[in-house]
Structure to design on (289 residues):
């Protein structure tokens, strides 16, 4: 949520600010299971029970609740865009985007297709047929302005980064951080954090464009989104086609007000079922939030 608030402050100052977030397509487990569906529901949460968009002044009171979702973040960014009078030229995804990773492989005739009708074996059969797979993202890393990098097993939240007891339990992990001043103009020597980011982008985008040198620009954001959108279309298609890298748009769409919905004809993840937006279950919130 702090990222959304930062974006809103930049919009109010008429400054551009870009945030790129890579997450798993779904969390560990079977995507159609109650636990994973509940987690996805709160992760995306396309509709709040009140059907009201909270005002920016009240957001600080929501930071420790279920408001920390894609829907909440996009709604407040959309609200800030409207307030700044930029609705005709800007969209929430010009500032914030969620991505996932996947891979498609050419068909193989080495092993027979699984034809059992059980849901688990059906998913296996479809995976063998279409040969597309999620790349699970478990790394915890952050790169800021090509100057600061955080990496390690620590989750990027107060509970992990504080290294102290939080809400009655301890969640301590290791981390490595570095703050390296970035000087693009005066010093032409390679910059470690910049080089690290560009190597990641080359791996996941499959190409390096000139605009990638300035990830904070609208041109760069829209170029990355174009590649990611095309990759998702290839991933979800029935006929094999080679992707450009591994980065895909997270399979949601939203309007200018930040309302999140599924992509047309993609209510569920390909092959494995499970609703992209999740579904509310009767599991206790403490187990999934």
């Amino acid at each position: 949520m702090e990222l959304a608030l930062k974006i809103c402050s930049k919009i109010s100052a008429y400054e551009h600010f870009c945030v790129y977030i890579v997450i798993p397509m779904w969390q560990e487990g079977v995507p159609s299971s109650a636990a994973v569906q509940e987690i996805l529901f709160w992760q995306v949460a396309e509709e709040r029970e009140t059907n009201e968009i909270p005002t920016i002044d009240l957001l600080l009171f929501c930071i420790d609740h279920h408001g920390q979702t894609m829907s909440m973040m996009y709604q407040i960014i959309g609200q800030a865009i409207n307030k700044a009078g930029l609705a005709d030229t800007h969209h929430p995804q010009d500032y914030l985007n969620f991505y996932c990773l996947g891979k498609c492989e050419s068909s193989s005739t080495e092993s027979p297709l699984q034809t059992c009708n059980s849901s688990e074996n059906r998913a296996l059969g479809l995976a063998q047929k279409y040969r597309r797979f999620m790349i699970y993202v478990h790394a915890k890393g952050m790169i800021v302005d090509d100057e600061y990098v955080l990496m390690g097993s620590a989750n990027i939240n107060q509970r992990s980064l504080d290294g102290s007891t939080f809400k009655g339990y301890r969640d301590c992990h290791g981390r490595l951080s570095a703050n390296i001043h970035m000087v693009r103009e005066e010093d032409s020597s390679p910059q470690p954090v910049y080089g690290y980011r560009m190597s990641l982008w080359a791996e996941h985008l499959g190409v390096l464009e000139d605009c990638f040198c300035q990830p904070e620009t609208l041109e760069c954001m829209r170029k990355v989104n174009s590649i990611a959108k095309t990759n998702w279309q290839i991933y979800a298609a029935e006929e094999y086609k080679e992707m450009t890298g591994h980065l895909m748009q997270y399979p949601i769409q939203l309007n200018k007000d930040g309302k999140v919905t599924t992509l047309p004809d993609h209510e569920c993840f390909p092959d494995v079922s499970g609703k992209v937006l999740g579904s509310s279950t009767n599991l206790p919130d403490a187990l999934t939030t």
Q: What stands out?
A: Helices lie at 2-12, 34-44, 70-83, 119-130, 158-161, 192-205, 218-236, 285-288. The beta strands are 19-22, 96-104, 132-135, 140-144, 148-152, 175-179, 247-249, 252-254, 260-262. Confidence is low (pLDDT under 50) at residues 46-68, 165-170. DSSP finds eight helices and nine strands in the chain.
